[in-house]
């Protein structure tokens, strides 16, 4: 299992926060400051210049930034060396169902885990949400293709068929 890490800016309602729920099940470790996150982690960042691919599996952990777009735009993660963006996927969470690129944190974790070859761990974390496994159903075909890619350039090629 790949260790899951998160940083929260506390901008979302903790009662519906997917990271907080994962923390209750001890499936994620939340860091109080972004600067305290280990530098060798693979950080999921929607603004990253490179797409996540199976070639990134060598990273020791996976991190999400559970924050607003406004926080991301402040440059808090500039210079982070292992940032990756997720390819085209559609949200299944109740707040953004059917909207492309609008994944919540657990969906981002699950997508990354699936692409990195950890489908069982992806299912485990999604199973904690009554809508969770629907994410895998909605995105079954692209996730399978992304998981079979060799690198980031192939991910972008596959993504072009969906987006």
TrEMBL record:
The 16S/18S rRNA aminocarboxypropyltransferase Tsr3 C-terminal domain extends over 42-162
- Keyword S-adenosyl-L-methionine listed? The answer is yes
Source organism superkingdom: Archaea
**Keyword list, A-Z:** Cytoplasm, Ribosome biogenesis, rRNA processing, S-adenosyl-L-methionine, Transferase
Q: Which InterPro entries match?
A: Tsr3-like (IPR022968), Tsr3_C (IPR007177)
Pfam families hit by this protein: Ribo_biogen_C
The keyword rRNA processing appears for this protein: yes
Protein name in UniProt: 16S rRNA aminocarboxypropyltransferase
Native species: Methanomicrobium antiquum
């Amino acid at each position: 299992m790949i260790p899951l890490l998160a940083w929260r800016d506390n901008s979302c309602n903790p009662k519906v926060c997917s990271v907080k729920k994962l923390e209750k099940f001890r499936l994620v470790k939340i860091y109080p400051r972004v600067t305290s996150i280990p530098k060798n982690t693979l950080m999921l960042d929607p603004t990253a210049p490179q797409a996540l691919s199976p070639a990134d599996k060598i990273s020791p952990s996976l991190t999400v930034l559970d924050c607003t777009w406004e926080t991301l735009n402040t440059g808090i993660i500039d210079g982070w060396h292992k940032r990756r963006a997720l390819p085209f996927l559609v949200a299944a969470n109740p707040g953004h169902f059917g909207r492309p690129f609008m994944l919540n944190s657990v969906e981002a974790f699950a997508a990354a885990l699936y692409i990195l070859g950890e489908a069982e761990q992806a299912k485990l974390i999604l199973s904690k949400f009554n809508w969770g496994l629907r994410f895998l159903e909605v995105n079954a075909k692209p996730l399978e293709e992304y998981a079979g890619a060799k690198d980031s350039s192939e991910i972008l090629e596959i993504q072009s068929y969906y987006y």
